[in-house]
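Ticket #4471: structure output looks truncated?

Reporter: J.K.
Steps to reproduce: submitted the chain below (127 residues) through the standard prediction queue, then opened the result file.
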Amino acid sequence: QVQLVESGGGLVQAGASLRLSCEFSGRSFICFAIGWFRQHPGKDRDFPAAISGRIGSRNYAESVKGRFTISRDNLKDTVDLQMNNLKPEDTATYCCAALPYTEFYRSNEDAEKYDFWGQGTQVTVSS
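Returned output as attached by the reporter:
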C-alpha cells in the first residue's frame, strides 16, 4: 500500500519561502506521478503543481508559475515543492497525492484520478 507523508509547512509572512516535502513508500516510486493539491479555508481544493514519473515532466497552475517549483528525487522517493514569494492566498492545507504515471498527461490536474493521498501539511501566509 502506498503511503505519502508531507512535511515542511509553517507560518510565514508574505514574500517568504517554504519548501514542502512528500515522502513516498510502499510501491515503485517511478511508476507514479505526484501532484500537490491544496485546500483553502472555506474554498474548494485546487491544483498548484504535478510532476510525472521517471522523466519528471512538470505542470503548474497559472497562479503559481514563476513562484513554485516541483522536483523529485527518484533515489530518495521524495517530491519537493519549493514555494517562493508566498502570498496570503497561498494559505491552505497542502497534500501530495500519487497518480499512475500513465495518467499524467491526461489527468494530472484532476484530483479524482489520484489513488493515494497524504494527510497534508498546513501553510499559513500572513500579510
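Triage note (M.O.): checked the attachment and the full C-alpha cell line is present. The longest strand covers residues 92-100.
Status: closed, working as intended.
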